[in-house]
Design a protein that fits this description.
The complex is a heterotetramer of chains A (503), B (313), C (331) and D (290). Chain A contains 18 helices and 22 strands. Classes of the chains: A alpha/beta (503), B mainly alpha (313), C mainly alpha (331), D alpha/beta (290). At the B-C interface, α6, α12 and α14 of B face α6, α12 and α14 of C. The structure holds adenosine-5'-triphosphate (2 copies) and magnesium ion (MG) (2 copies).
């Protein structure tokens, strides 16, 4: 209890923000003490990232004030006051090197003569502290998204003297790296850094945080010590209603094969053979850079690969995206902003993009989009996508809602084989529950499902079978009765883990 | 009523600017709304309008077609030569469209299929088209255009020249194709995010090919229209048009980054630019001061337009 | 060999360099005088104006912008210089006015882009028209001769090296230093990568953008004086249209049109490449009518070479990676 | 109504004369500039017609593509005078006043042919060609070549310039790389002469008239550039156009036509050839002279 007697390092008073007249954050008030980790939780679109943006002085609040160490936070001076943040959408510069990225806002040496050797040393030291092997010389675009996230965290840590804000920092990390990060947070806490931690993973929150602030539709609906609230209570505060135990019933897979690949091979994976039955959900686990995404993309025909592939027992010669789509195979990509969404197009068009021909009624084939709006609205409702209007650009949505748009797009195509890559990345518990339910329902209806996920509990929850990949090869397979988190992780991580970077 | 007016102004931010220009020019100069002046303005801008529709398609996918200006010249010259030799107008139209389509297809294959950068590639084809126009014509106008073609340039229906009707037709087809067909939708999606388009199973090379192809085709048509307008085909006819075409498209509100814009906006952009230039001429300020005013108005117009459309979202 | 390919994928300007060497080799076979020292020097002198401007344009494009008005700035600067020389005959005044005016006009482009959050293309299209109008307004479309001794900038020699080449070298060295060793240089490259990230990282976006455009203006001012000195006097419309050649040089040199990655070396090589085409045509006494066709053809060949080399490099990276994968699989 | 193709020095010279003459006679001039765009010029002429001007003076962007607009002028009963650039095919233009470019070219050519007639062996000449689509430029070159043909063993290096001095510059530079012993340079416009001087200076071959190794340089126009170079003796001679007379005649013709009088169709104002020896005493006759 010594914390609350200390002077708070960050005071947030009546913070509000409105975009074009619509209030998205309203009257948020809390204190943060040195050495305290506070969880900022809420559903998708609750206003967490907006709050973060105000706290690191990227956005000016409409009302209220923020005091850092007693000093008022003015726009743009966050870093000078020792506040820094890891943003939900990475803010790295792809063609700059790791060292350049990490040191960019405080380059060593003079403005007219930057000391690059020093910058590289600082970066290397920081990466070392984070316990990950990344060459500070390589450009960021050569790193996988997991490593990029680590770089981003390292960058923020370099400048966080008083307050560090982490907005969903673990979405691209696997269990091993997450644990590393949490240990680091513990260390930082001991050093007296104050941390705001935004996450949709309840286990993580209970693992690292001391207290919590709950936002619902922009309102602060709860604030206190974590030790005082049980998890289900916290969840209820976020959602505003009681939620049931999220354990979907799995159906029995049939004997028919939905998809089969044999001897798949390219520069990212080696000798892969696997099959999914109709009605079966196959999980693929592995560390970052294990080659799961590449495999999934290759199966869908987005990357060249040697090997054979069967859909519904029929071989697909010279397979490519069009052929796979024609056979009702779909792929929901991992990175929604880069490979998934059309950010400056309306939600409606994003939902219909994969199935324009079947999405709407047409009198003449290929002409007119009658009924598109209605169907898009229905789908948005079905997926529980929160948007003011179906014509809003996708970029206006919160992260979780964007993810739902992406999944919704593919679900309307009535897929028979569906490959999902990190399907619940950045999605709140309610939405995650919805998405899992949808996946299970698809399996019930006879689709073959492959889920690639770094969120092990998710796989344990939904999969019939888990295949573990390591360095581009299949390193193990577990059926439901053999599920054991510790063993799965050890199979994924043995021999030291991830691939080297710097190809 | 008022609401729908303001919302139209937000969607098509060029409209209020056009209205202001129209009102002020017609007050200052009694000749501005004179039928002859309006006809001349419409006819002269039909070439730019047709080409700008092509450029809009390319812009929507995030590309650029620098060759469209000299494709106009090349197709005009070749079509002029064919007509001079055969006295056959249909053959002339076919040649113009064929030459345009040829260049369009070349750009389409190089950029869409082989993935070359649009800027340099179309700059190269721009030079080649210009060279062909000059080689074939030996630098001078191709004479011997059938009388019918020139006469066609004079036709006026409902106060609007025939060539302008053709341009309007192109605009209408462009609007329909972009808003009503799957192809149009895919053009927007490719421009919005190529990766996502590929991951969604859209045939990106095909879409890119198609926009450059159509841009070339429209360049060809514009080349033929230039013959009708001018009476003869000249090898330098398109040279000066490139910046005007790009200016009109961007002024209308179609972004070069892709995924945003429309043919209707381009129509308004062309209208705005041509009203501006014509009006400034009538007011009688010297040429070089017109350039300055034009520049300022292009800037202010686009800025206002952006302000208005920002407020919408 | 594989190393070369890897290098190719990293250093994008190498492709342009190779294309230039191939073109030079071709020309030396076709024309005996091509490989003379004096022709080499003459090519460099001819490329100097474009190359100097391309260095500035590289900053602008790297930062995610573009400047269509560069040619008009060149025109206006030349006009201002010539007019001032005519009126006052004062070199210091004319030089200072021309260079600072060019820098200012460049900076104004940047400022408009930043203050009004406008697309660089439309902004500089507008200023292109404005600057050009200002230039004609200033001189009334008259030609104005410049004093003979001005010629020193155009064809004087220091240590037997032509002055334009010296100027190019100086700007080249400063350009490289600025881009690679200073804070500003990193910021420029960062800005072109992602505007959003730059905002979130709290970079001084306004200052960096304005400076990049100002540099473009500054070097255009220098290029204007060199060109003026070489051409011998102001001509109405001088420099109009040169921006496309400059942009082409930059893009040929491997800089991405959308910003973020590119090099100064590449841009200079690109400028030399473009001059070589004309040099070759002149040397071979080609018919004036086919100039554009050959230019277009060679330009096309250059992009194809660039694309092919990138493709080959990618392929070799792939095969290296799969070989490594197979090794670990066997281990 | 004054419809101009493009603004540059010599055109402005004629335009000024037109403005002056028209003012003397009490007319108002509406000037429009097409900036090299044939379509724009058509539209501009039609808006001049719409403004009910009394007469149209036109310098066409392209001689063959302006007929459409001119026919409209004819229908509206507005007389049309072409200046500087003839419209030989036009059925509308009632009078033309301007240079005789073939004649001017011949003048420059004759001088060069004579000056080089004593050269033994091959004579190498550089020809700086104007814009490929400008009849005046084409005619100047054609006239020059007619006279050059008098030389027996001659080789001509063509350099296209598009009237652009920087292209003239690099073209000349490359031409001199290609051939060591160039004897003469012909510039379709004498504004390119300073660029030629730059190249000659580069090569250390800028030798005044009469001295060993002098390169014969002639041009057409009458600009300050040409005047200065000729007076200094680095250029041999230039053909000077009479801009003032051209402009004033154009207005005079238009006034006659407005009054319903007959005028001669073609009124050429041939240029005068001045050499190093006589240029300074005739400075008053040269529009570009200071
Ligand atoms: N620039 C903006 N303009 C308009 N509305 C916005 C803007 N940025 C965010 N919003 C809206 O504000 C609300 C809060 O968004 P925010 O990103 O803060 O949510 P979040 O809690 O971070 O959600 P998630 O967990 O999905 O990341 C959302 O409804 C979003 O649509
Ligand atoms: N060592 C590497 N060399 C080159 N590229 C890599 C390397 N590791 C990852 N990548 C690239 O980074 C992208 C995503 O990698 P990331 O590390 O996020 O993989 P992941 O999704 O976490 O794991 P997996 O690859 O198993 O799906 C892929 O496109 C991949 O090609
Ligand atoms: Mg968020
Ligand atoms: Mg992955």
């Amino acid at each position: 209890m010594s914390q609350s007697e200390q002077k708070p390092i960050l005071q947030v008073r009546g913070l509000s923000k409105a975009f074009a007249g619509k209030t998205v954050v309203h009257n948020v008030t809390f204190d943060l003490h040195p050495g305290e980790i506070i969880a900022l939780v809420g559903e998708n679109g609750a206003g967490k990232s907006t709050t973060k943006n105000m706290l690191c002085s990227l956005l000016a609040p409409s009302e209220g004030e923020i005091l850092v160490d007693g000093q008022k936070l003015e726009p743009g001076i966050g870093e000078d006051l020792g506040v820094s943040a890891v943003h939900q959408e990475l803010s790295l510069f792809q063609t700059l090197t790791v060292a350049e990225n990490m040191c960019i806002s405080r380059l060593p040496g003079k403005a007219a003569n930057v000391d690059w050797a020093e910058a590289e040393r600082i970066a290397a030291e920081q990466l070392d502290f984070l316990g990950i092997e990344i060459d500070p010389h390589v450009t960021v675009d050569q790193l996988g998204s997991g490593k990029q996230q680590v770089v981003e965290i390292g960058k923020a840590l370099l400048h966080a003297e008083k307050v560090l804000i982490l907005d969903e920092p673990t979405t691209s990390l696997t269990a091993v790296e997450r644990e590393k990060l949490f240990n680091i947070l513990d260390k930082l806490k001991e050093r007296g850094l104050a941390i705001i931690f935004i996450s949709h993973f309840m286990e993580e929150i209970y693992r690292v945080c001391d207290s919590y602030v709950v936002l619902r539709d922009g309102e602060q609906v709860g604030h206190g010590k974590l030790a005082d609230v049980p998890q289900h209570h916290l969840e209820e505060m976020m959602v505003g209603r009681a939620i049931g135990e999220a354990r979907p019933d799995l159906s029995e897979p049939t004997a028919d094969e939905a998809l089969r690949v044999e001897d798949f091979e390219n520069e990212d994976f080696h000798q892969i053979s696997l099959s999914v039955k109709k009605g079966e959900i196959l999980g693929i686990a592995g560390l970052m850079g294990a080659g799961r995404t590449e495999l999934a993309e290759a199966i869908f025909g987005l990357r060249p690969a040697k090997g054979k592939i069967w859909v519904h027992g029929q071989e697909v010669p010279g397979h490519n995206v069009t052929k796979m789509k024609d056979r009702n195979v779909v792929y929901v990509p991992e990175d929604r902003r880069i490979n998934g969404l059309f950010l400056n197009r309306p939600v409606r068009e994003n939902l219909s993009a994969a199935s324009i021909l079947t999405f709407v009624k047409r009198r003449l084939r290929g002409i007119g989009f009658k009924g598109e709006k209605r169907k898009a609205n229905e789908l948005a409702e079905e997926m529980n996508i929160r948007i003011p209007h179906i014509e809003n650009h996708v970029s206006d949505l919160s992260g979780g809602n964007q993810q739902k748009v992406l999944i919704g797009r593919w679900l309307v195509t009535a897929p028979e084989v569906i490959i999902l890559d990190e399907p619940t990345k950045g999605v709140d518990i309610g939405a995650k529950f919805d998405i899992h339910a949808t996946i299970v329902r698809l399996a019930h209806e006879g689709a073959g499902v492959i889920i690639v996920s770094s969120d092990l509990p998710e796989l344990l929850n939904t999969a019939h079978r888990i295949v573990v990949m390591r360095k581009g090869r299949i390193a193990g397979e577990f059926t439901r009765d053999q599920f054991d988190p510790a063993r799965i992780i050890s199979v994924a991580a043995s021999e030291g883990g991830a691939r080297d970077d710097a190809a | 009523m008022f609401r729908s007016l303001t919302s139209a102004a937000r969607l098509y931010p060029a409209i209020p600017v056009i209205v202001v220009l129209l009102v002020s020019f017609s007050t200052i100069s009694p000749y501005f709304l004179n039928a002859g002046n309006v006809e001349a303005m419409l006819a002269a801008n039909s070439v730019v309008l047709i080409a700008a529709v092509g450029m809009t398609l390319v812009f929507l996918t995030g590309g650029i077609d620098l060759s469209i200006s000299t494709v106009i010249s090349a197709s005009a010259v070749l079509s002029g030569l064919v007509m001079a030799a055969t006295d056959n107008v249909a053959l002339g139209v076919l040649t113009a469209m064929g030459v345009g389509a040829g260049f369009g297809a070349a750009n389409g294959v190089l950029i869409g299929i082989f993935g070359l950068t649009p800027f340099i590639t179309t700059m190269a084809t721009q030079l080649i088209a210009r060279g062909i126009a000059f080689v074939m014509s030996q630098g001078v106008a191709v004479r011997g255009t059938p009388f019918w073609v020139m006469d066609f340039g004079f036709w006026v229906w409902l106060g609007i020249p025939a060539v302008t009707w053709i341009a309007f037709g192109v605009v209408l087809i462009g609007i329909a194709a972009l808003t009503l067909t799957t192809w149009g939708r895919e053009v927007y999606l490719v421009g919005s995010n190529r990766n996502s388009a590929r991951f969604t199973g859209i045939n990106v090379p095909q879409i890119e090919f198609s926009v450059y192809f159509l841009s070339g085709l429209l360049g060809g048509l514009a080349g033929f229209i230039s013959i009708a307008n001018l009476g003869n085909a000249i090898p330098g006819v398109g040279d000066t048009l490139l910046l005007i075409i790009i200016g009109a498209v961007v002024l209308g509100g179609t972004a070069m980054e892709g995924g945003e814009g429309s043919v209707l906006r381009t129509l308004l952009g062309v209208a705005l630019l041509s009203i501006l230039i014509n009006g400034l001429n009538l007011i009688g300020i010297p040429f070089y001061d017109q350039l300055i005013v034009q520049g300022v108005l292009i800037f202010v117009g686009t800025w206002l337009a952006m302000k208005l459309s920002r407020r919408r979202s | 060999m594989t190393q070369l390919k890897t290098l190719l994928s990293r250093q994008k300007w190498l492709a342009a360099a190779i294309a230039t060497i191939v073109l030079a080799a071709l020309l030396s076979v076709m024309s005996p005088v091509f490989l003379t020292f004096s022709n080499f020097q003459s090519v460099l002198v001819q490329a100097s104006v474009t190359a100097i401007m391309a260095i500035g344009m590289t900053y602008i494009i790297l930062s995610g912008g573009i400047d269509i008005s560069m040619g008009a700035i060149l025109f206006f600067t030349s006009a201002l210089f010539a007019q001032l020389m005519l009126d006052t005959s004062s070199y210091p005044l004319a030089f200072a006015a021309a260079i600072s005016c060019a820098t200012l006009l460049g900076a104004l482009n940047g400022a408009l882009v930043i203050w009004f959050r406008m697309s660089p293309l439309i902004t500089t299209l507008a200023t292109y028209s404005i600057y050009r109008g200002m230039a004609i307004h200033l001189t009334g479309a008259q030609n104005i001769p410049v004093p003979r001794e001005m010629g020193f900038l155009g064809n004087g020699r220091i240590l037997n090296i032509p002055v334009p080449i010296i100027l190019l070298l100086i700007i080249f060295v400063i350009g490289i230093y600025l881009l690679n060793k200073t804070r500003f240089g990193v910021f420029v490259r960062a800005l072109g990568n992602s505007q959003r990230s730059a905002e979130e990282t709290n970079l001084p976006i306004g200052k960096v953008t304005i400076t990049a455009y100002a540099i473009g203006g500054f070097v255009t001012g220098i290029a204007a004086l060199v060109l003026l000195a070489r051409v011998g006097g102001l001509q109405s419309g001088i420099g109009i249209g040169i921006e496309f050649t400059v942009i082409a040089a930059v893009i040929l040199g491997g800089t991405k049109l959308t910003g973020g990655s590119g090099t100064i070396v590449g841009s200079v090589i690109g400028a030399v490449f473009l001059v070589l085409i004309d040099n070759g045509l002149n040397l071979m006494n080609a018919s004036p009518y086919i100039y554009d066709i050959v230019r277009g053809g060679v330009l096309l060949a250059a992009v194809v070479v660039d694309r092919l080399s990138a493709y080959r490099a990618e392929q070799s990276l792939r095969s290296q990676r799969s070989a490594r994968l197979r090794e670990t699989a066997q281990a | 109504g004054l419809s101009v193709d493009q603004l540059f020095e010599s055109r402005v010279g004629v335009n000024n004369a037109i403005h002056a003459e028209a003012e003397d006679r009490g007319f108002e001039v509406i000037e429009v500039v097409a900036d090299g765009d044939a379509q724009a010029q058509n539209a501009q002429i039609q808006s001049l017609i719409a403004q009910e001007v009394d007469a149209i003076l036109v310098c066409a962007v392209d001689q063959n593509t302006i007929e459409r607009a001119l026919i409209a002028a004819q229908r509206a009963g507005i007389p049309v005078v072409a200046y500087d650039r003839d419209l030989p095919e036009s059925r509308v233009v009632q009078a033309f006043v301007g240079p005789d470019s073939l004649f001017d070219g011949r003048e420059a050519g004759r001088y060069m042919a004579e000056a080089l007639s004593g050269v033994e062996g091959e004579v190498v000449l550089v020809e700086l060609i104007g814009a490929l689509n400008d009849q005046n430029g084409i005619d100047r070159s054609a006239g020059w070549r007619e006279e050059i043909a008098a030389l027996e063993n001659v080789r001509i290096i063509e350099v296209p310039t598009d009237w652009d001095s920087s292209r003239a510059l690099s073209g000349t530079q490359n031409a001199f790389q290609q051939s060591e012993n160039i004897h003469g340079v012909f510039a379709a416009t004498d504004t390119h002469i300073p660029a030629v001087e730059t190249v000659l200076t580069d090569l250390g071959r800028l030798v005044p008239i009469g001295e060993e190794g002098h390169v014969v340089v002639t041009g057409i126009n009458g600009s300050n550039d040409g005047y200065t170079a000729t007076a200094a003796g680095t250029a041999d001679g230039i053909v000077v156009m009479d801009l003032d007379t051209t402009g004033r005649t154009a207005v005079a013709l238009a006034v006659e036509l407005m009054a319903g009088n007959e005028v001669p169709r073609t009124n050429v104002i041939p240029g005068n050839f001045y050499t190093h020896d006589n240029i300074e005493e005739n400075a008053a006759m040269i529009w570009g002279a200071p």
